[in-house]
Design brief:
With 513 residues, the chain is of the alpha+beta class. It is built from twelve helices and six strands. The N and C termini lie far apart (111 Å). Helix 5 packs antiparallel against helix 6. It has one domain: Up-down Bundle (Outer membrane efflux proteins (OEP)). It is 68% helix and 11% strand.
Length: 513
């Protein structure tokens, strides 16, 4: 029976099909990436990372470092691409609301005639000879326009959800940029502290090495008791160890700042070291005002409000799918079959579709949607509390940093004076060289602590601004040069500081009145 059905032509076509399948299946081979290919890609990526950047030809100010991080930092670039992708996704969803217009064309070729015979239902006898109404070879084509009312409604709600998701992406980008600026602020002032102390570090380290050589000579000549000399040597070795830790901190500060501004980690970035540190900014202690400002500008709180809307729309989508779909269609058709009386024709239709079984679960769908909305609202309340708590914590951290800075200044002044007195005594031979170095090291460490406390204060101030949601970045910052963006950021920070100071003065005047 099979041999009757399969003609020579069928055998040939089947053999070609099997051979093609076998060849394609065996053609897939493992192609591991070689080390040289990985190296080539890595070198290309290295060029792409630092390509199209404005060169650094002068010491960086804080605003310039922030501007470079916004324009060139790779993490910030990722959020920009994610935002662009979210915008494209929104455009695609909008097209889903449009009517569907589909076209198709094809060619058919049978190996034999498509014929049929007729048999009488009553007698069971053949009533007609085998006949056909189709050509063995024929072309067909159609173009069809369809529009489903239910799909339109669901896609419309989907478009609204994607619009909110796009706004969520913008809020995420804002949060990323604010955290980036906060990191740059702290790393910049750490670099300032380290670079300003590097020269003094070299002087102290050189004096320690010279004194160690003198002590070794004293020990060899036995001019002092061995225990006294060994104690001095041990003290100086501990001093060298502490200096080495400071030197490592200087290198780490350089790497952190270089990474944030998208420069090679091995590059030495010079920063503007101010001769006089600016005094800290007074921030109002009107916590209710700060809380309201933070809630109205917080990206996390805004994001959760968008998520509530997204979940509400998702519930509406679930309920909408319970309704039957109403579909309208119209098409133009063509068929080259010579037996057709009309080889071209139009066709219009209307159809109602729906899944009746979904009605059984309508109560569960409604309950699920309601619980999901309640969860989103509960999260919003939790974030509200978290934003308010973060404002209090960062405000407290900032004020603690101010007090720590005051103590660090006092200790630095005292240790500087002690070091000077000890140095004078050592010069007049009234004190030992080891003691003078120890006091000089203590003064160096106190000054370093003062500089680092200032960096901590600046970092706490930046964290306070992040918790309040202050956003100094313009929408068109990518089109601005580094200097233009740096000047804009500096103006925004100065204006915000003045507004905070004005609020504080007005509140103090009101209390005094």
């Amino acid at each position: 029976m099979i041999r009757k059905i399969l003609t020579k032509r069928h055998y040939r076509q089947l053999s070609i099909l099997l051979l093609t399948t076998l060849v394609v299946g065996c053609a897939v081979k493992l192609q591991p990436i070689s080390n040289q290919e990985i190296l080539d890609v890595a070198l290309t990526d290295q060029q792409l990372i630092y390509d199209s950047q404005e060169p650094i030809d002068q010491p960086l100010s804080l605003s310039q470092a922030m501007a470079r991080s916004l324009k060139y930092n790779l993490e910030n670039r990722v959020t920009l691409v994610e935002e662009a992708l979210s915008n494209r996704s929104l455009d695609l969803v909008k097209t889903d609301m449009l009517p569907q217009l589909a076209a198709s064309a094809g060619y058919l070729d049978r190996s034999n005639v498509d014929a049929s015979r007729s048999v009488s239902v009553l007698s069971g006898q053949e009533s007609l000879e085998p006949s056909t109404s189709q050509d063995r070879q024929r072309n067909n084509a159609d173009i069809r326009f369809t529009w489903n009312l239910l799909d339109f409604g669901v896609n419309y709600l989907q478009a609204q959800q994607d619009a909110d998701r796009f706004l969520v992406t913008q809020s995420t980008r804002k949060k990323t940029m604010l955290r980036l600026l906060d990191q740059v602020r702290f790393s910049y002032w750490r670099a300032v502290a380290m670079q300003s102390m590097s020269d003094q570090l070299q002087l102290v380290s050189s004096r320690v090495n010279t004194t160690l050589l003198n002590l070794e000579q004293t020990r060899a000549e036995q001019l002092r008791t061995p225990i006294a000399v060994l104690n001095d040597i041990r003290t100086l070795l501990e001093t060298q160890q502490q200096l080495e830790r400071v030197r490592q901190s200087i290198n780490q500060a350089q790497v952190q700042l270089s990474t944030l501004v998208n420069m090679p980690p091995s590059s030495e970035i010079q920063v503007v070291t101010p001769s006089l540190l600016t005094p800290p900014i007074t921030v109002t202690d009107d916590m209710e005002e700060l809380e309201m400002y933070a809630l109205s500008h917080s990206s996390e709180y805004t994001t959760q409000m968008y998520n509530v809307r997204i979940d509400q729309l998702e519930s509406r989508k679930g309920l909408m799918r319970l309704f039957p779909g109403l579909e309208f269609s119209y098409g133009e058709n063509y068929n080259s079959n010579s037996f057709l009386w009309n080889d071209q024709w139009g066709e219009a239709g209307i159809r109602i579709t729906g899944d009746i079984t979904q009605l059984i679960y309508s109560g569960r769908i409604k309950a699920y949607g309601k619980v999901k909305e309640q969860l989103a609202q509960t999260r919003r309340l939790a974030i509200n509390m978290a934003v308010v708590a973060n404002v209090h914590l960062t405000w407290q951290d900032y004020n603690n940093a101010l007090r720590s800075l005051d103590y660090a200044r006092l200790l630095s002044d005292i240790d500087q004076e002690i070091s000077q007195l000890t140095a004078n005594a050592a010069t007049s031979r009234a004190g030992s060289e080891s003691e003078a170095i120890q006091n000089e090291l203590r003064a160096f460490r106190s000054e370093m602590e003062r500089m680092l406390s200032y960096a901590e204060m600046q970092g706490a101030y930046g964290s306070l601004m992040v918790s309040l949601g202050f956003d100094p970045v313009p929408e068109n910052y990518q089109t601005m040069t580094v200097d233009e963006l740096a000047n804009y950021l500096e103006q925004q920070f100065q204006q915000w500081a003045e507004e905070v100071a004005v609020v504080d003065v007005e509140r103090s005047d009101a209390k005094a009145g």
